[in-house]
Specification:
Blueprint: H1 6-19, H2 23-28, E1 38-43, H3 49-58, E2 60-68, H4 71-87, E3 91-95, E4 98-103, E5 106-114, H5 117-120, E6 131-135, H6 143-155, E7 159-173, H7 179-190, H8 204-214, E8 217-223, E9 226-228, H9 233-250, H10 255-270, E10 275-287
Parallel strand pairs: 1-2, 1-6, 2-5, 6-7
Antiparallel strand pairs: 3-4, 4-5, 7-10, 8-10, 9-10
Helix pairs in contact: 6-8, 7-9, 9-10
Bound molecules: S-adenosylmethionine.
């Protein structure tokens, strides 16, 4: 569960975009500088979907550092960005090793940083950044790592926008008698090590809110649930298959019933009857 493919991240990006609450950006924006470029650090950027979501909504002058340990995902970022830019009337250019994004409302420089965030968070100079952001990372990290991140952010006066932490809720339609059991097993699996120590899994957003409040942030959290309809069958198939294999990993003796559940749910996806809601939370923090 620690490897993420560019295809999977591409499949989830439209669901992520639809799920995120735009008013958190309006809430965080006044805490960012207006007289110069806003410097943004995106942790665990993948192919840069958080940049594609946030940059046009923040607007103005921006400089981003996209950090991830996976060179394949970082390598896929320019092409993903170009495809997105072409569809959104944004001009892409280069300036040395940086990429640039430009349109009437946005002028943005983008750099990539390959770094193992579990091991080398301390090599990043947080004082360079106004906003530290991430999407779909915090459920993978441990309490200790999250605390370290929070401290670095507050000591450097960074605003925070941590999006799309899975919160343990999975609602499937039509309902199957085994859904609740599978969800519980998935949540057990979520708490296993993902490279950062014992993972927070479904507790990530609650822990983040508590931590940021303790560190003195003004905090706001909102749901960013995926609402996946029957037309999104490829995303549904990936999710349901992933849940079944995660459940089987933590309950080996239940493999037969998990496989039967998987086949029932996939049949509903194929028949166009299946809908899923997956609970997520976005957390924003402003330095008081
Ligand atoms: C669920 S994906 C989210 C990617 C991206 N933020 C998005 O929303 O599409 C988790 C990301 O965490 C990255 N990641 C996992 N462990 C990491 C580590 N130790 N250091 C840096 N990045 C890591 C993965 O490479 C992957 O890009």
């Amino acid at each position: 569960m620690t490897g993420f493919s560019a295809d999977w991240l591409g499949l989830r990006e439209p669901a992520d975009t639809a799920a995120r609450p735009p008013d958190l950006i309006d809430w965080i924006a006044p805490s960012l500088p207006r007289d110069r470029s806003v410097h943004v650090l995106d942790l665990a950027t993948g192919t840069g979907s958080n940049l594609r979501y946030l940059a046009p909504r923040l607007g103005g002058l921006q400089q981003w550092v996209l950090a991830d340990h996976d060179p394949v995902l970082l390598g896929a970022m320019p092409e993903r960005l170009s495809t997105w830019a072409a569809a959104n009337d944004v001009a892409v250019g280069t300036a040395g090793k940086s990429l640039t994004l430009q349109n009437a409302g946005l002028s943005c420089r983008v750099d990539r940083l390959q770094v193992d965030l579990a091991r080398d968070l301390g090599t990043i100079d947080f004082t360079r950044f106004d906003l530290v952001s991430t999407a779909a990372l915090l459920d993978l990290v441990s309490d200790v790592w999250l605390e370290d991140l929070g401290r670095r952010c507050v000591e450097s006066g960074c605003s925070i926008l941590f999006a799309l932490s899975y919160d343990g809720r999975i609602d499937c339609t039509p309902v199957d008698p085994l859904d609740a059991r599978i969800r519980d097993l998935v949540n057990d699996h979520q708490r296993t090590e993902k490279g950062f120590g014992p993972a927070l899994g479904p507790d990530a957003a609650t822990r983040t809110v508590r931590l940021l409040e303790r560190l003195g942030y003004e905090v706001r959290a909102e749901h960013s649930d995926w609402r996946i309809d029957a037309a999104q069958s490829a995303l549904q198939t990936e999710l349901i298959t992933g849940w079944a294999s995660a459940a089987a990993e933590v309950a080996l003796d239940e493999r037969a019933s998990i496989e039967a559940w998987l086949q029932r749910r996939l049949a509903w996806v194929r028949d166009g009857q299946s809908r899923l809601v997956v609970g997520h939370v976005d957390v924003a923090g402003r330095v008081r």
